[in-house]
Amino acid sequence: MELNDGSLERLPERIARPRYDRAGLAPGIVHIGVGNFMRAHHALYLDDLMNRGLALDWAISGIGLISPNAPARTAMGPQDCLYTLTEKHPDGRCESRVVGSISEYHYAPDDPELAISRIARPETRIVSLTITEGGYDVDDRTGEFLGRSAIVRADLEAERCTRSAFGLVLEAMRIRRDRGDGGLTVMSCDNMQGNGRVAQAAFLGFARRRDPDLAAWMERNLSFPNSMVDRVAPRTSDADRAHLLERYGLDDRWPVTAEPFRQWVLEDDFAAGRPPYEEAGVEIVDDVVPYELMKLRLANGTHQALAYFGRLLGHTYVHEAIVDPDIRPVLLRYIDEEAIPTLAPIPGQDFRAFGRTVLERFGNPQLQDTLVRICEETSDRIPKFLLPVVFDRLGADERADVCAAVVASWARYAEGVGDDGEPFEVRDPLREQLMERAGRQGEEPLAFLGNREIFGDLADRPEFVGPYLRALTSLRERGARETLGELKRPPSGG
């Protein structure tokens, strides 16, 4: 049975499905970058609201922007934008539901003007985004819009902006301004600190280069709330599709799986209204920053701390690395000794308990979350997730030995070969540059750390260079297992 509106009533009772009339939905949100995380997170919260008879005028109009989004066309259209979400519990239980909060989907390169018109229509009050951490083209250190990516450069040089998220929104805002329709909210759901501020820098920075007058209007009429989002949603596999077919007789071309845990903390700053997110469990707050730091440093930072050691040791999945008897104690050292001391207190929040919940979540073997996924785009992730811990620790005259070893594990991983001598693919936007530097570190030990665009002045700071070089030397000469064996024991007197 193929999944679509017509088959919903024929689904087995044991699979949940929308309890609302999808024909009565009205789009109020345009989401750019429809992928697994968005469908397991933002779309799910809205589906929860709609099942309660709320937010029926806040359905999602999805827009795909880049070539990896193109395959979604073959699934979203025939399936009436329906898809199945399966939550996988550590004990092997699986709970599936059909999500119906996405009412339409369009791949923008097929018809950019249609994408622009959907953003421009008066009913659109929120443009939400999952375009990845690196998709904003903003300098991590200065917060300035760079405009260096190929897709952004093409839009900056074109007569009409039709390729980037920034360009599509700019052209739509021109239409809204000229019609007198007012602004909207640009809501980043990407996994980075200050995602609202970053989005504001990117969209307004792009607009200032193209049309300063329109940029000034956008600055007055658009809002950019910060948010903290958290849920593991691995890539869809053939096994996920087979599970739905075998258990429910359901043919879903693009299902999504996720862990049971989910969290969303959202700043209440909306220019044109919002759904009642709090009714679905979203934490609406005045200041997201403390929650962001907790999640980025304890969850995402922990992902980085385990990924490269895990790959060097030959592990395939995150849960394998989590239970490794040499990796886990190092993760606890990172959480308790280095990350938590950099966090400001949050009333009612136990950081140690949160950190252990992170390890339990990542240790879920049912997710089959690959280390390859966690190792991708490290040049975007390490500066956002781990290096802030380093600089905070060094600024307080405290040690950052575990963080130094994690950076060293990345440097060793960038050589592209595991401890068993087997080569593996290094996936990163800066792959060639990283591998070239890693290839020189046998003769130039600081060749990798000397990349100032990523690491700033860390190569000039003896308090970091010392533990970094000890770890890197040990990794290259004795391997990850021996290095972890020493690292999991705190230094005497420290």
UniProtKB/TrEMBL annotation:
Its EC number is 1.1.1.17. It catalyses: D-mannitol 1-phosphate + NAD(+) = beta-D-fructose 6-phosphate + NADH + H(+). GO terms for molecular function: mannitol-1-phosphate 5-dehydrogenase activity. The keyword Oxidoreductase applies. Pfam families: Mannitol_dh (PF01232), Mannitol_dh_C (PF08125). PROSITE patterns: MANNITOL_DHGENASE. Keywords: NAD, Oxidoreductase. InterPro entries: 6-PGluconate_DH-like_C_sf, 6PGD_dom2, Mannitol_DH, Mannitol_DH/Oxidoreductase, Mannitol_DH_C, Mannitol_DH_CS, Mannitol_DH_N, NAD(P)-bd_dom_sf. One of its GO terms (biological process) is mannitol metabolic process. Belongs to the mannitol dehydrogenase family. This is Mannitol-1-phosphate 5-dehydrogenase. The lineage of its organism: Bacteria, Bacillati, Actinomycetota, Actinomycetes, Micrococcales.
